[in-house]
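Session log. Operator J.P. requested a structure for one protein chain; no other inputs attached. Running the standard single-chain path with token output.
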Amino acid sequence: MNNKIYILTIAAMAAGLVSCKKDFLNKLPISQGTVGNYYKTASDAEGGLVGAYQQAFLTDQYWVWDYTTNGDARADNCYAGGDNPDNFGVDNFTTTPLNGNITRDWQGPYQDIYAANTVIDKVPQIPAASFSGNRQQEIISEAKFIRALSYFQLVTSYGAVPLVTSTIAGKFQPTPSRTAATEIYAQIEKDLLDGESVLPASFPNVGRVTKGAVQALLAKVYAQEGKYQQCLDYCNKVISGPYSLVPDYKTLFDGTKNTTESIFEIQHSSASGFTTYNVSLYLPAIFGTYSFKKFNLPTNDLVALYKSQNDNIRLSSSIYTAAVSADGLAAGDPIPAPYTNKSPTVPFLYKWKTNISQFGGGTDNTILLRLADIILLKAEALNQLNQTPAAIPLVNQIRARVKLPGITATSKADVGLAILNERRMELAFEGQRWNDLLRYGSDYTITLMKSQVDPFGKPLNYGINQNKLLFPVPLNEIQLDGNLTQNPGY
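Structure written below.
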């Protein structure tokens, strides 16, 4: 099934990046390094940037679906479901250096980084007079965002990783060793700070990295580092920008694209062939999608949290429950693990709803950054900085949108847990949960995951420990690069 998705995705890639109003996406992609400099004009530079966007957000399977597996199935929001042993390994903390997902999610970001580095290296060699206004520096800054985001994926997944910032021979080791996580974070910060001073608040065409996207990612990076004052500063910059919460939460996930709440989202369109496969991967065949075992099934624990809060709006927008029978769903789907024919109903992941064909996927955009995330992150930063009373109204702002009363917690510890739960309900299946848990504390994360049960209440007995909070370095990468070392415990 993975091969089918990959082939379909590659076929779709030929159409070009989507959903822009101008000719930004009609450029020839130039994402590979070349002998000499084939970047001679401003048009070449735009084409190279398109290639970097295409590689990072449409070719790399991380943003096709692995971000949900790694962020939600690895945490307590989803069971792996499906029939892929590599996904089971991510879900139950039995990954090995041979795991296919782990290998793909190492190689993919480095391919994204290579595409971004090519732009960052080559575009400055084009005469500045070839560009209109500040466009040359904007292109470089957009590529730096892609590089920063890719390194953020890597450092939060594997810890210390090789830092490669150039494609030019002699500027990095042919087989680089691992760089300390603190240095990786320093490079991420530098790339994003460079872009903040250059990028505009908006572009005429959607789907492009803006100043707000850089600031939002910086806020999330600072939070993950535990730099909560800097996180607060950048949350404030985003919140004071051109964004606003949509009044109806359901609008975010009903096929509406690029709302006032959106800071950065990956563009998908049936017209140009780019689609997200989340619909066919996650929803039952009653939605007209391809019939195979479904992945990333919401946990009973998550469903129970929504119900305990009477959060019917976000529950119905995030999870679809369908009846099953001994032969599977009425529309022909097999019953997905860990459910069996003993289950009267099965909850399915429902944040992506549109579909275009039996073998295709949805045309919903993939939202990477949105305002509600940043508002709740600001609440987290304030609470961590001992400004708990100021954090509470922000949590209540998010709850008010879905018709829920304010939280009753007042102490720092209780408000911190309320924020964690609010982020869980608000951002379920958007790939955020695992990093949220790590920020809350490794001891808490380990204890929580050891307490998880299957849909029938049977303990899952996850073998999680401190070492398992990071993925192993893929074996084939160690074999190719003698300077790489393995993470402890693998």
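Operator note: The first helix runs from residue 2 to 13.
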